[in-house]
């Protein structure tokens, strides 16, 4: 019987995660400040610390089935005096509606560790905020987390315009009329560590020049698979030297990196450029840039690129772009996307709007609506329905690996999971990092490496 390398790794990951999660209470980032003493007390403050480890019964804080959501807290009292007080647990929806509250009396001897358990009944699939407020003799703190309950049952509600396919077909047809005029220039000063680096330039939507960096290992098979990396929000991609199993094409869409001069924002925030126009919105050109970059890869078989093995990878904005690209173009054979931005945009907007001070890309769109009375959210949605990755992904046929962080305010986990649920392809997986914000844990990248090695039989 053949055992998949992904199965072997998943077992090792669970063991590593178990060990790391059960050691959290001794890590420095879990150190919490001592509660201030009353001003009337002029004597010395007590010296010590309290450490808290919050451990969900499900290691990645994704709970499935009908069982109650369970958490165990380890509270270590490093003071030389006992600690007494209350531990309170509160669970709310994204909108702040309280669905559970309980409290336990706490009494911890000096230099001792106690365990406390909470079992939270849940009914509706979704993501919930959970906070643990600890008030002790010399210490106060609140730890906030997020958990998912049966998230694969979250309905993937798409709002696909009637002319969605026609709009994007017309866009691609227009792009085809633009001669790419590929220019490839070896960068001898950058070609180090056994790899050649090339500056790549090409003409894209609107006849502007966009650029990227192609890195090819010197020691490689006759035909080498290609990793096509798409950028995050206004993120500059430089040449990549961290992967010798692929030719890596790091592509900067217009307005970022070495393609910055391809877009004049006229001082407007990047994702607000022509936001009131479906046809002129900046992301129409950006999506076409991504296709033009794929055109470049597929035109380079003469350089030894295996154009039958193209992996598209992206994080944040790049994750959303990777999903949309794979839906529009079947030349993409694998997708890896981390914390994909803008997915399930309508719901992301509603969640982000709960925080009026949000400075995320979605928050900038929320603020634009708030400060432009003649352009309400329904008008924004009518534009964004053409760009929302959730409206694309049902067309993806290749395998997809998605990774999310449960504490992510840029890309709410509910929105990522709804988009994941909208995938109709046979092979899809999702990795959840319970203690990360707009990033994923390091173990994911090892798993990702084995994942595409397995699919490409490398």
Supply the CATH class of the largest domain. Answer: Alpha Beta
Order of helices and strands: HEEEEEEEEHEEEEEHEHEHHHEHEH
Shape: globular
* Radius of gyration over C-alpha positions, nearest whole angstrom: 25 Å
Tell me, rounded to a whole number, the average pLDDT. 91
How many domains comprise the coordinates?
Answer: 2
Distance linking N and C termini: 20 Å
Q: How would a textbook summarize the main sheet?
A: 9 strands, mixed
Portion of residues in beta strands equals 25-35%
CATH superfamily of the largest domain: Alpha/Beta hydrolase fold, catalytic domain
CATH 2nd-level architecture of the largest domain:
3-Layer(aba) Sandwich
Number of helices: 9
The level of helicity is 10-25%
Structure explained in plain terms:
It is a single chain. It is built from 9 helices and 17 strands. The chain is an alpha/beta fold and 458 residues long. The chain has 2 domains: 149 residues, Immunoglobulin-like (Sandwich); 292 residues, Alpha/Beta hydrolase fold, catalytic domain (Rossmann fold), CATH 3.40.50. The strands form 3 sheets. The protein has a 9-stranded mixed beta sheet with strand order 9-10-11-13-12-14-15-16-17, sandwiched between helices. Strands 2-8-7-4-5 form a 5-stranded mixed beta sheet, with no helix packed on it. The two termini are 20 Å apart.
Short structural summary:
The protein has 458 residues and is an alpha/beta fold. 24% of the residues lie in helices and 29% in strands. It has nine helices and 17 strands.
